[in-house]
Amino acid sequence: MAGTDQLSSVFSALADPTRRAILADLAKRDATVTELTAPHPISMPAVSRHLKVLERATLISRTRSGKWRASHLEAAPLREAADWIERYREFWDASLTRLEAHLATVQAAERTTNPTELAPGTPTGTDSDDDKEP
After folding, report:
1. Using CA atoms, how far apart are residues 113 and 64, in angstroms rounded to an integer?
2. Does CATH number 1.10.10.10 belong to domain 6-74?
């Protein structure tokens, strides 16, 4: 992903459900390609391609020990993505809080304008002809 910023690379890598599942596996422990292939219905070469995408996004690192190559989850890029998302969560929380306050104001104004109207679900204490059985 030449020319792409780090955050875009992270979100692009996270867009695939198989890569998210691989990251979940690596959150438990470091693993080889063989170990990561076992729980997934895809081939070892396909898992290797997913690992290359995750490595380019710096979501994982890979180490070699003898003939084994283990993958390791790198948390820092996930933290950066979570921090970016958090800013927007705060925006939406504030927006929903303002909406809630506005609705409360509108409802209070309606109650003072129409004080004889009862709240929904409040019994009227009178029987209408519609409620009586024939």
Report:
1. 75
2. yes
Write the DSSP string, 46-95.
HHHHHHHHHHHTTSEEEEEETTEEEEEE-HHHHHHHHHHHHHHHHHHHHH
- CB of 51 closer than 8 Å to CB of 60: yes
With CA atoms as reference, report the closest residue to 31 among 64, 72, 60, 74.
72
Residue 30's H or E segment, with its range, is none
User: What's the rounded Cα separation, in Å, for the pair 112 and 105?
Assistant: 11
User: At 3, is the pLDDT very low, low, confident or very high (cuts 50, 70, 90)?
Assistant: very low
- Mean of the per-residue pLDDT values of the chain: 86
pLDDT, one tens digit per residue, over 49-108 is 999 999 999 999 999 988 889 999 999 999 999 999 988 888 888 888 888 999 999 998
Instruction: For residue 31, give the nearest of 76, 59, 69 by alpha carbon.
Output: 69
Reported as type and span, the H/E element at residue 32 is: strand 31-32
Residue 46's alpha-carbon distances to 34, 51, 101, in angstroms, are 11, 9, 51
Give the SS3 label for residue 113.
helix
